[in-house]
Amino acid sequence: MFDHILISRCFLGDKVRYNSETIQLKHPLLTLWHKQNRLIAICPEVSGGLPVPREPAEQQPDSDKVITVSGIDVTEAFNFGAKQALTLCRKHKIRFAIMKESSPSCGSTLIYDGSFSNQKVPGQGVTTKILTQEGIQVFSENNLQDLSVLLDK
Ligand code: SF4
């Protein structure tokens, strides 16, 4: 089967990050997958209704809440964006995703600890968690090679 891949929109150079800075990911595999029309992009936070720029937000420890640095609860928007990502995966029968590491939505092995002090802890972003629960394998900018061997099998 031909695999489409869900990808964090910011990796494609779109200005969707909280600080509106671009962080385009440049990698030969990504260039190839783009040419093959595999990539389906989403920014869960923007799809969830949040603006650009927006305040940084972090998941709070021992709760399902996501709070901005000034204390605004944005959990609902994060959850809504995650559901949009899942809907996209179901529509395109997506089995794999490439999501930005450490983001409170897209992180796959690390997230910030909720204290806004630049400390990371093991964990998954809100969208990654939902995708993983549904059996979608989430990769990051750090392990694209691992994904390349799994495609179309
Ligand atoms: S929510 Fe994900 S796609 Fe959107 S800017 Fe953050 S890391 Fe990128």
SS-derived structural category: alpha/beta
Total of DSSP H or I helical runs spanning 4+ residues: 5
List the ions, cofactors and other small molecules found in this model.
iron/sulfur cluster
* Number of strand elements: 8
Query: How does the major sheet shape up?
Result: 4 strands, parallel
Distance between the termini: 6 Å
Give the topology string: H per helix, E per strand.
Answer: EHEHEEHEEEHEH
Percent of residues in helices comes to 25-40%
- Radius of gyration, CA atoms, in whole angstroms: 15 Å
Description:
The protein is an alpha/beta fold. The chain has one domain. 27% of the residues lie in helices and 17% in strands. The chain is globular. The relative contact order is 0.19. Bound molecules: iron/sulfur cluster.
State the gist of this model.
The protein has helices at 28-35, 44-47, 75-91, 126-133, 144-148; strands at residues 5-8, 39-42, 57-59, 66-68, 96-98, 110-112, 120-122, 137-139.
What's the arrangement of secondary structure elements?
Blueprint: E1 5-8, H1 28-35, E2 39-42, H2 44-47, E3 57-59, E4 66-68, H3 75-91, E5 96-98, E6 110-112, E7 120-122, H4 126-133, E8 137-139, H5 144-148
Parallel strand pairs: 1-2, 1-5, 5-8
Antiparallel strand pairs: 3-4, 6-7
Helix pairs in contact: 3-4
Bound molecules: iron/sulfur cluster (SF4).
Iron/sulfur cluster binds at residues 8-10, 16-17, 43-45, 100, 103, 105-106.
What keywords describe this structure?
two-stranded antiparallel sheet; 5 helices; 153 residues; 8 strands; 4-stranded parallel beta sheet; alpha/beta; binds iron/sulfur cluster
